[in-house]
Design a protein that fits this description.
It is built from 11 helices and 10 strands. It is of the alpha+beta class. It has 2 domains: 227 residues, no CATH class; 154 residues, Sulfite Oxidase, Chain A, domain 2. The chain has a 5-stranded mixed sheet. Strands 3, 4, 7, 8 and 9 form a 5-stranded antiparallel sheet that branches. The longest helix is centred in the middle third of the chain and has 31 residues. One of its GO terms (molecular function) is oxidoreductase activity.
Length: 403
């Protein structure tokens, strides 16, 4: 079955899917606010991306981009494996390089194959388990992505003309109409993909396409439930980081529990106060004062970098109203700090457009009930299109800044 046509079919699919995965991954990095030092890694040297304020509209923007990144990243695994299977003879040719062009091709192939396997393996493990690596996943994933991107661009530049020529060598309609009994090998090719003396086929080309397509569809079914919700989320076995849920109105995903974050329940009770900074003097508000302020209710998604997302109905005080109460009605940014004392995400810095978005809230209630402790009681941030990890839980203070 191996040959330029079959390899080119898998390559053409990846040529469409991989740029989407790459772009949405880079957008996720930008969404984390690298200009505020909130993205990991913070220092990327000359690999620094163009800086701009991540939009807070539409509210489903991050849900879409990160859902595509993780979802397509998982769905393409059967296609990547099929593509690697189709070029196995090429990977072990000897001598490995016979010309300068061949050296460039082999190096790009090493970067491409090594890069995509590293990104897939570490990405899948990261959504399966909580920080199991002996290194920063985010740092490794970022720099690994650039190795892969360089190999991908070089490989496409070298192989695109040959891929187009191979795809034109036979039509998809004729392949789908050919049974196993009528299947013959492709003509011998200069890359050595076609076996000189092939065994009789055990599967037709349309059978191979069906197997790979079926595997891709199966992965999609086992992934989509984390976004679709309802009974389908029980099928989402590839995203168990989002399989911990609350109860009743709080029945949606929990990434980090209060116990894991070492939240002292005593600090979330009657002693809890919200401190607003950035104005002429600090403002301290208790629950009664916050309840007396105008309340706003809105349906907003909560989307995680690991790929799961959910839409809930949130109720709370607009961040813009809190900025006005603090004495800085037009802040340039805001730093939200949590009762959580440890961890990389015990605070978040919000951009001006995120603070002033009319749907950006300090939320106290969800779906008509108080937040559960694991969901951030007594108060959490919820901002349209903001990565979930920056929707800080167990909020203790908000510092509204001029810039």
């Amino acid at each position: 079955m191996r040959g330029p046509w079959l390899t080119s079919v898998f390559g053409a699919v990846l040529l469409v899917v991989l740029p989407i995965v790459i772009l949405t991954g880079l957008l996720s990095y930008i969404a984390y606010g690298p200009k505020f030092g909130m993205a990991i890694p913070a220092d990327v040297g000359w690999l620094k991306l163009p800086s701009f304020d991540w939009p807070s509209n539409p509210s489903w923007l991050y849900r879409l981009t990160q859902g595509l990144h993780v979802g397509l990243g998982l769905i393409m695994i059967p296609i990547v494996l099929a593509k690697l299977w189709s070029v196995i003879p090429r990977l072990f040719t000897w001598p490995p390089a016979r010309s300068v062009a061949n050296v460039i091709e082999r190096v790009s192939l090493l970067m491409l194959v090594g890069g995509v396997l590293f990104e897939i393996v570490t990405g899948v493990l990261n959504i399966q388990y909580d920080y199991i690596f002996g290194f920063s996943f985010y740092t490794a994933h970022y720099f690994g992505a650039w190795v892969f991107i360089a190999g991908f661009v070089a490989h496409v530049a070298v192989k695109l003309p040959k891929m187009i020529h191979s795809l034109r060598s036979r039509s998809m309609r004729s392949v789908l109409a050919t049974s196993r009994a009528d299947t013959v090998s492709e003509p011998l090719d200069e890359d050595g993909l076609v076996a000189p003396d092939p065994d009789p086929p055990t599967l037709s080309r349309r059978g191979i396409l069906a197997v790979v397509g079926g595997g891709t569809l199966l992965v999609a079914v086992l992934t989509a439930g984390q976004t679709v919700g309802g009974w389908t989320r029980q099928l989402a076995i590839l995203l168990p980081r989002g399989r911990s849920y609350g109860n009743g109105p709080n029945d949606f995903q929990i990434n980090r529990t209060a116990l894991t974050a070492r939240i002292d329940p005593a600090l979330t009770g009657e002693r809890w106060r919200l401190q607003l900074l950035g104005g002429p003097q600090p403002v301290v508000l208790d629950r009664a004062m916050l309840a007396a302020m105008p309340q706003h209710t809105v349906d907003l998604p909560l989307a995680c970098v690991e790929g799961w997302s959910t839409v809930q109905t949130w109720t709370g005080v607009r961040l813009a109203d809190l900025a006005a109460a603090a004495g800085r009605p037009q802040p340039g940014s805001a730093i939200v700090s949590s009762l959580e004392r440890f961890g990389a995400f015990n605070h978040a810095r919000l951009q001006r457009n995120q603070v002033l978005n009319p749907d950006a809230l300090l939320a106290f209630r969800v779906n008509g009930a108080d937040l559960s402790l694991d969901h951030g009681y007594p108060a959490r941030i919820i901002v349209p299109a903001l990565p979930g990890v920056h929707c800080t839980k167990w909020v203790a203070s908000i510092d509204f800044r001029e810039v």
